[in-house]
Amino acid sequence: MTHVAALGEFVADTIERGIGDARATDSRMRILDTVGNGLAAAPEEPVRIVRAFAEQQAGSGEAPVWGSDLRLPAASAALVNGTMAHALDFDDTHLPSVLHPSASVVPAVLAAAAATGATAEHTLAAIAAGNEVTIRLGTAGYDEEFGNSIFFEKGLHATSICGTIGAAAACAVLFGGTADTAAHAMGIAASMGAGLIEANRTGGSVKRIHTGWAAHSGLTAGQLAAGGLTGPPTVLEGRFGFFQAYTDGHFNEEALVGGLGDEWQSDRLFFKPYPTNHFTHAGIDAAMALRDEVDLDDITAIRLGAPAPVLRTIAEPADQKATPTDPYTARFSGPFTVAAALVGGGGLGLWLDDFTDETIADETRLRLSGLVECSADERATEIFPHQFPAVLEIETSSGDTLTHRIDHNRGGPENPLSEAEVARKFEINARRVLDAPAAAHIQLTVTSLSGGASVAELGAA
Fold this sequence. Notes:
By secondary structure, this protein is of the alpha+beta class. It folds into two domains: 3-272 and 420-460, 2-methylcitrate dehydratase PrpD; 278-406, CATH 3.30.1330.120. The protein contains 23 helices and ten strands. The strands form four sheets. The protein has a four-stranded mixed sheet with strand order 8-7-9-10. Strands 1-2 form a two-stranded antiparallel sheet. Helix 2 (21-40) packs across helix 4, helix 2 (21-40) runs antiparallel to helix 22 and helix 4 (74-86) packs antiparallel against helix 11. The model has no long low-confidence stretch (mean pLDDT 95).
């Protein structure tokens, strides 16, 4: 059996058999979190651009666009909603693969479910299975000896590359396919996934549509496979296959297909409490822990120690990170996010209102950001990427040095967000564009999804 065949069997069996209560609850939380992130992103310029493009394509209104009365063909709805899901960099993250599965899989699956009339039970299982395939592909490309993702080292966005394939497998089954159909869908989708992460370093809005295109391509591949198009059986391990193309042929076979159905790598999936690049979160946690112990005016030096591989994302180029030019790039800055956390923010500690044109020009934040010196920390580097750790040192004018180390950043299995915190995050995100009753209605609809009920009510909400 080839690897894609094994993954296809896993996806089809998972959707047919269903998943247990705990995993179904997790899928509901993934929907709630992803939809909330998408609603909060509705006013963003990249979302407007992609939505206008999708509307120009016209076609039947199979699936809803979140936060609007607009209905589009399923693939177009997945494109818009997937863009919304990742546009604010607020979406969940898996470790050690360092990818965001739900932002590709959830929009694609919900659009496919709307188009096919899938049950809640099948939809929740499809999300769990699609996320698991996405994560396993990303984890297979993690080099344990090197201590980092090969995708990441090559400048590739594993989120969209792997998310396309995970979404395809899940959607193929919702469109009536079998295990073989899911395998063919993944074989087709492997020719569609792409994404470069240079925008993390030097700017550009294209990264914000990566998961939208992954959701669109994955759903399209699922439809094509259900219609009879085929993919190569050795698309993953073959001489000219996925891993040869993306990781120079290196991949961990056990991480890819070992324990399928019994061991869930998606159990290592982190919710994000802050709308910033995940590499910044431990620095934020440490700054929040220290901010009540120090007078901001007395701070004379700040040192942020982080894993060596993340410095190119959150610390380089140093001048741009100290003085970000727009709110989005500020969320990828280790110095500025530490400064914002020291000043104090909203939501679960920092929220979207802490990254605006006004806040990135604020004198206090800029002064503190300019004091932050980033460097590699040996302990943090050893732990990464199973966690995103950091250590923060603050010196004051009186000669005191305050230190706080974070080994397990907030939102993961060792330091999880509660269901109430995930619900709170959804509420404040959704209220960016909806009134309180509408937001509450969506939340109730998502948390009530179960059994043979249709997901049509969620689309209407």
